[in-house]
Amino acid sequence: DAELTRRLRLHLDDNGAGSTVIYYPLVASLRLLRDREAMAPIMTQLRQLIAGREVDGVFLRVQGFGATKAGPRNLRSYLMAARDLHELGVPLVGERTGSVGVALAAFGAIGGIESSITHGEGYDARRLNKLPKGKGFVPAPRVYIADAMAMVGKTEATTILARRGFARLACQQVCCRRDRQAMLDDARRHFVVTRSNELTGLSMTPDSDRAEHYLTTALMPARDNAAQLARFLPALLSHRDRLDDWYLAL
Q1: What are the percentages of helix, strand and coil residues in the chain, rounded to 5?
Q2: H or E element in which residue 14 lies
Q3: Chain mean position to CA 43
Q4: Which of 43, 94, 207, 242 lies most in the core, judged by the most C-beta atoms within 10 Å?
Q5: Average pLDDT, stretch 153-181?
Q6: Within its chain, how far is the Cα of 242 from the centroid?
Q7: What is the pLDDT of residue 226?
Q8: Considering the entire predicted model, what is its pTM?
Q9: Is residue 98 within 8 Å of 121, Cβ to Cβ?
Q10: Pairing between β-strand 143-145 and β-strand 150-152 as defined by DSSP bridges
């Protein structure tokens, strides 16, 4: 795989595309990433690729990790593994991390996130071993309730925003212009703009203050809001518990 990467860099350079960057996709389980002995040869290969200017950064695809599978133990393991990978000295991007990716960025584990839009909050390589069934379809976009860090269906989002006292959870940003209906009608745009603004807010916060700023201004209020929503939307009980786990782990 490293040799294929070198050949790719060589062909790009020889064909006038020398400025094209290459991000190496490191696919691994958390167990492997935390195994120093098993990771030693992988780290050696990556260092060689970076030293030869054949790789410009690393995209981290962690098997079985994501917004819905980031319990306290997994979250701590990801943070520790990412800390080791920072020794490579190149940008580290977390793939399919969902909302927990913002937390990982706030705590310096990763420098950026890769995300699909309203779906795909985890990476599962096992699907590559199965033939696709049927013609396939694009699922309806979910609605991002940012102040609760929750992804919900359009019906649930309508229920939340129409309930007395919860209109405050409607988007207040430029993507929706404080229009509740716009948030529901164009959920994809709302999500992209909102998630981008979350990361921009982190970037504008000094490194030394990011972790505490995230906990006090984002995660703690989201825990409270999720707890209130779970009282009349039982489907959000697991989400409420998940935010509690994130808080304790972080």
Answers
A1: 55, 10, 30
A2: helix 2-14
A3: 23
A4: 94
A5: 87
A6: 15
A7: 96
A8: 0.88
A9: yes
A10: antiparallel
Q: Is it the case that residue 206 has pLDDT exceeding 80? A: yes
pLDDT of residue 244: 94
| Of residues 32, 34, 124, the one with CA closest to residue 79 | 34
> What are the C-alpha distances in Å from 242 to residues 37, 38, 46, 216, 236?
32, 30, 34, 17, 10
Question: 237-249 and 72-85 helices cross at what angle (nearest 10)?
Answer: 50
Q: What is the residue type of 245?
A: D
pLDDT band at 225 (very low <50, low <70, confident <90, very high): very high
State how far the Cα of 188 lies from the Cα of 35, in Å rounded to an integer: 38
Angle at 5 between CA 95 and CA 86, to 5 degrees: 45
Q: What is the pLDDT of residue 176?
A: 79
What letter does residue 66 receive in the DSSP assignment? B
Contact (CB, 8 A) for 202 and 210: yes
Q: Of 226, 237, 219, 231, which Cα lies nearest the Cα of 102? A: 219
